[in-house]
Prior knowledge:
Structural class: alpha/beta
Bound molecules: adenosine-5'-diphosphate, ligand 2
Strand content: 25-35%
Number of strands: 15
Distance between the termini: 32 Å
Number of domains: 1
Radius of gyration: 17 Å
CATH architecture: 3-Layer(aba) Sandwich
Largest sheet: 9 strands, mixed
Number of helices: 8
CATH topology: Carbamate kinase
Shape: globular
Helix content: 25-40%
CATH superfamily: Acetylglutamate kinase-like
Amino acid sequence: xxxxxxxxxGSILQELPKAFYELLIELKEKKICEPVIVHGGGPEINQAxxxxxxESTFVDGLRVTTEEVLEVAQMVMSGTINKRIVxxxxxxxxxxxxxxxxxxxxxxxxxxxxxKLGFVxxxxxVETFWIDxxxxxxxxxxxxxxxxxxxxxxxxINGDTAAGAVAEALGCKLVLISNIPGVMETIxxxxxxxxxxxxKDVEALIDSGVIYGGMIPKVRSALASxxxxxEESVILxxxxxxxxxxxxxxxxxxxxxxxxxxxxx
Length: 265
Ligand SMILES: Nc1ncnc2c1ncn2[C@@H]1O[C@H](COP(=O)(O)OP(=O)(O)O)[C@@H](O)[C@H]1O
Ligand SMILES: CC(=O)N[C@@H](CCC(=O)OP(=O)(O)O)C(=O)O
């Protein structure tokens, strides 16, 4: 069965309707696709850090991650959030298995070449064996983006980047679930959704400031995974689970990132 990686963004995690979990379970039961979940958790990490009086700092949408911040990110994502998603699936009678990228060396990483971000990694290898094992046993894997480095080093990975790497390794589609209906732009005082974007379009929208903040790593990792063999990536609104069905049915919804040339907007 075709696998699909669903990245669930931190922006929407706490508001996802029951229908979202029901739909993913149904897709699996009806053998439409095999969902693999990768999640983020930025806002909840911010909250936890704030309670500890630690400031959150980002460079191009990536969190500057000291050792202390890494421990908090791991606690929040691999603990609280991961288990909450697993419970939400199980509440709808789905079988979900939560694991972090550290478990079984599922996500292996090295420090990102930037120098300013601390323990932020880029994925060097995905041990897909564990994902396939869970899928073969009828489960839904739920993966948090903390990765294993050399020795006991661990890295904080942006959720979109981790999801892109998993989709690449599985050679499947990547669906990025967020709190917006797609990449938007105000043109002639009207807000429009860009339904199709290529790398060239994306870089122009970043340069002009239309795409900013957390949307930057989202579109960049979606594009990077296309180069790594992912056939298509799409950004969809988590509040509208039906958009997932519409997308799978080929309807014009969300923002599709692809190297094919499409009509604009
Ligand atoms: N052009 C754009 N269109 C839509 N959202 C954008 C755009 N540029 C930046 N954003 C911001 O990106 C956010 C989504 O990124 P992020 O908060 O990292 O999401 P997630 O947590 O779902 O990964 C949106 O809520 C919005 O604030
Ligand atoms: C390196 C880095 O920035 N890691 C992210 C991981 C969480 C994430 O990506 O969450 P979203 O889905 O909310 O974007 C962070 O620490 O916030």
